[in-house]
TrEMBL record:
Region: Disordered, residue numbers: 1-61
Protein name in the entry: CD225/dispanin family protein
The species this protein was found in: Gordonia liuliyuniae
Coiled coil: none
Subcellular location: Membrane
Length: 145
């Protein structure tokens, strides 16, 4: 189909729509609308899984969970305080993954605190034990003489 503007027929509308001479603005059916997310595409700026939308992104690296110190204090020092330290240190990663960054830092600090208290309790126990043993030996030696 030739027109006065296009005498050789190239560039014609394949659907034979009448050309009104005006460009069509706005969304066409079946065409993506710019600025709108499409199905299955990530929406940037939206919180992803594990992020709390009210706290923003993570403030830095995950805090050290002090698990090694917790295990050593449990095995070598004081069992009850060491167990509490292990429980606190294992909750650091879970809290961080859920987006509770302040809670993860608090759990890491608590794990370190309980591990230190376990070590201090063990040192105090051994000091008391050595003093008691020395008193018992001194009493036994004085009774035999």
């Amino acid at each position: 189909m030739t027109t006065p503007q296009n005498p050789d027929g190239f560039g014609q509308d394949p659907f034979n729509k009448p050309d009104s001479g005006q460009p069509q603005y706005g969304p066409q059916y079946g065409q993506p609308q710019y600025g709108q997310p499409q199905y299955g595409q990530p929406q940037y700026g939206q919180p992803q899984y594990g992020q709390n939308p009210y706290q923003g992104g993570p403030p830095g690296m995950e805090p050290d969970n002090n698990l090694v110190w917790a295990i050593l204090s449990t095995v070598l020092c004081c069992l009850p305080l060491g167990i509490v330290s292990i429980v606190k240190s294992t909750s650091v990663g879970k809290l961080w993954a859920m987006g509770d960054y302040a809670g993860a830092q608090q759990a890491a600090d608590d794990a370190k605190k309980f591990a230190m208290w376990s070590a201090i309790a063990a040192v105090a126990w051994w000091v008391i034990f050595v003093i008691f043993y020395a008193v018992v030996i001194a009493a036994a030696v004085s009774n035999t003489a």
